[in-house]
Structures are given as C-alpha cells and as structure tokens.
Design a protein that fits this description.
mainly alpha, 83% helix, 3 helices
Length: 138
Amino acid sequence: MSDKKIKKESPLTLQELKQVLKESNYLTVKDLREVLKTSGYVTTNDLNQSLIKFYTTLVEPRFIKIEQKLEEHDRRFDQIDQRFDDLYKKFETLFQEYVVIKEQLKRMDYAVDEVKTLKMKVADLYQRVEELEKRVSH
C-alpha cells in the first residue's frame, strides 16, 4: 500500500455505502477506489455488506433463475423421456406382432406347399384311376 492515503475526519458510514450501492447495482473496483478516495478507508464490515448486497442483488437471483430453468428443463426431459418410453413400448408391441405374423406366414407357406403337393398327388391318382378305367374298359 502506498503512503499517500487520504483520510477524512469521518469514515464512510454504512448508510452512505448503502446509498452508493443503491445508486449502482454493486460496487466495482473503480467504485471502491472512489469510496477510498472520498472517505479514506472502507471497513471490513462495509466490504462484507457490499459483497452481501452484490450477492443478493445480482448473483443469487440469477442462480435462482438458473435453478428454476433447470428444474423446468428436468420436468420437460422427464416428459420427453416418458414419451420415448411409451414409443418404445409401442414399437416393442409392434415388433412382437411382426414376429408372430412372420411365423404365421411361414406356417401358411408350408401349408400351401403341402396343399400343392396333395393336389399333385390327387391329380396323379386321378390319372392312375383314368388309366385303370381305360384298361378295365378295353
């Protein structure tokens, strides 16, 4: 610290410091230098009050807003997450139905193949019967 400290007879009162804080949202380094120039010194209590005022007027409300936004986003994400869960359930159901339909189609294809085979056998039997009828009638 320099030896050129200017000290006034009366220090800056807390009320005066509060007035300075009211006029500006918070004390910057420049503001503190100005206070030091005019009053000669600032007490620890004055600095604490200034920091408390700075925190309560600027920092805390912003943190509260940020926390509120985060909570709002959490609620929205929870809603979105629930919607995705619902979609996954629907897709799971659709997939299960798809698997069942696919298996039934395989069975139907197998049954159709069996029917074709049976038709061919019946046609062969008809042909044999006709040949037998021809032989018997000659």
